[in-house]
Amino acid sequence: MAISISIWLQYLAFVLFTVFHCNAQTQPQQEPNYLRFVFNASEMPLEDSYDYIIVGGGTAGCPLAATLSTMFRVLVLERGGVGYGRPNLMTQEGFLTTLLDNPHTYDSPVQSFTSEDGVSNARGRVLGGSSAINAGFYSRADEEFFRRSGPWDLKLVNESYEWVESQIVFKPEIKTWQSAVRDGLIESGVGPYNGFSLDHKLGTKIGGSTFDPAGKRHSAADLLTLARASKIRVAIYANVERILLAPETSKSKQSAVGVVYCDQIGIHHYALLREHGEVILSAGAIGTPQLLLLSGIGPGPYLSSRGIRVFHHLPYVGQFLYDNPRNSISFVPSIPLEHSLIQVVGITDSGVYIEAASNLIPFTSPHRSGLIRTPLSPIHLTVATLISKTSGPVSSGFLRLASTDVRVNPIVRFNYFNVTVDVDRCVNGARKMGQIMRSRAFDDFKFRNWFGGREFRIVGPAMPANQMSYVEMAAFCRRTLNTIWHYHGGCVVGRVVHPSLRVIGISSLRVVDGSVFGISPGTNPQATIMMLGRYMGMKMMNERARKYQKTTESAN
Ligand SMILES: Cc1cc2nc3c(=O)[nH]c(=O)nc-3n(C[C@H](O)[C@H](O)[C@H](O)COP(=O)(O)OP(=O)(O)OC[C@H]3O[C@@H](n4cnc5c(N)ncnc54)[C@H](O)[C@@H]3O)c2cc1C
Ligand SMILES: *[C@@H]1O[C@H](CO)[C@@H](O)[C@H](O)[C@H]1NC(C)=O
Ligand SMILES: *[C@@H]1O[C@H](CO)[C@@H](O)[C@H](O)[C@H]1NC(C)=O
Ligand SMILES: *[C@@H]1O[C@H](CO)[C@@H](O)[C@H](O)[C@H]1NC(C)=O
Q: Where, by residue number, does the polypeptide cross the bilayer (predicted)?
């Protein structure tokens, strides 16, 4: 089954590749104003100093940098390029092409990797990070997330979400497929219907989107528009290789003093901290623990065994790494459907979230061009997909280094379904998908069969006939296991960082990204990761203002 799916995906990739290479049209777009302060790393000075050095211009890094730059001198170091001007990256329709059609080079915007669990996965490598390659669904975190993590200043949390939303979040227009999913969810008992909402509420709702009504992508990179241009530098194609660390002295604890980064032509540059400055790691759940390990911060015996000098023994770096299982059921509908990424979500009370997508693949048959001209008769092939995301999860894995070259992906293992509760939740999700498939809202998508009955034309594994059987449904969960790309952890609060997100035992070093989470926030994480960037930027500025005030007071 796994093989037939991958062949199917290769086919999709091929078709999409052909379509885009034949029909790609360049639309004039307004150049984003942040490009004024984005530089190729090779143009950057060999040595310079900053108040804040942010490693990773991703989902958390961009809002954090924009915020801190209103008062301080900020450097953002991003290993990828800019997405602006690349049609597949910038449009909703380009989502699959971007994911599937990526050359294995060190500068393509998607870095694919396969975990030891055998599931292929993806990391963003472009300004905006994974928010610049994702499916765009936007929804705030659940209350339980805030209760279990933190402590949080909930007023600042709300203000930070609003800051993000005012810039890059839109109300999607739902069409045939997403409407049917909404109706099917309600019919299957996932109520109440909450209409359009960015809040996490039990029941069915339409969430926000970072694609605008014209289908154009917005991402965390757009939040750089709010930066103070005179105070910020963004270096692209800048691979940070190591955090520069100073040992403990009589005057100070061991601390970060800067970073080393390498540009595209292999030249090393030094970015150093000014007094009271900080290095902030926003390189994501894979990149941040990897960089700590490469800098000698992590499990001592492991680092020694890899020939890395131990700077600080911190046993849980790279541990408690999680990925939420995605299970799905797909079919070719009997009526043509529009293309859609996630817009509707069912928030159940049984540990799963139900979402959906429909991929429309238009192509003009070569037989129709040439002599027999039948204009405007493209063939449309649609695949409609219902998705179940297992919340949490509880099962966790870890990463370790595959190489001392930072560009090489670490070896990652998520241990999906290691803990029974994850299987239980997945089974609940699979049963819910079965119920939705049987709903009246889905009747129109069936084909008429030989005997006059109606049935689905399923693509890939079908649901077990006996959906009451836990054993069969659990087997379905394992057979259709995939990722929804919401991996998180690796630098979890309480294990690697303090609640202030400072790295335990080292001063002037923080982590601000999805690697600090022990649980995936809400139905989809990007809202909360962008909020976190803004939130931490505000917190750090307030903290510093208070400290500065204190020292001037005591000096008086
Ligand atoms: C295909 C896909 C679809 C998704 N769909 C959705 C969705 O619809 N809704 C949703 O809410 N979430 C979605 N997600 C998840 C969400 O996008 C991610 O959880 C989130 O973007 C992660 O944010 P982050 O800041 O932790 O890391 P990232 O955004 O990945 O940022 C890390 C950045 O650091 C850079 N970096 C890493 N290492 C280095 C280094 N050594 N030197 C310099 N730079 C470095 C990377 O290039 C990257 O830009 C999706 C993810 C993917 C991959
Ligand atoms: C960045 O600069 C280097 C060195 O001048 C050059 O080789 C490379 O092509 C540049 N990259 C981009 C994307 O401009
Ligand atoms: C934050 O927003 C949520 C959802 O809109 C609301 O329920 C909550 O009361 C707000 N909290 C604060 C402290 O403003
Ligand atoms: C869970 O993971 C542990 C450690 O990798 C392994 O020994 C165990 O067999 C796994 N259990 C299940 C049920 O997968």
A: none
Q: 408-433, pLDDT tens digit by residue?
A: 999 999 999 999 999 999 999 999 99
Please confirm, yes or no, whether 486 is among the known catalytic residues. Answer: yes
pTM confidence score:
0.93
The domain of 342 spans 173-206+325-365+377-390+417-480
Find the CATH number of the domain harbouring 86: 3.50.50.60
CA 294 to ligand 2 centroid distance, Å:
26
Pair 116, 191 in one domain? no
**Domain end residue (candidates: 452, 480, 508):** 480
In a domain, 428, yes or no: yes
Packed helices 526-555 and 154-168: angle between N→C axes, nearest 10 degrees: 120
397 touches 411 (CB < 8 A): no
Question: Where does a domain end: 480, 495, 530?
Answer: 480
Q: pLDDT digits over 114-139, tens only?
A: 999 999 999 999 999 999 999 999 99
Residue 394 near residue 341 (C-beta atoms within 8 A): no
Q: In this structure, which ligand is nearest to the CA of 420?
A: 4
Can you give the C-alpha Rg of the chain in angstroms? 24
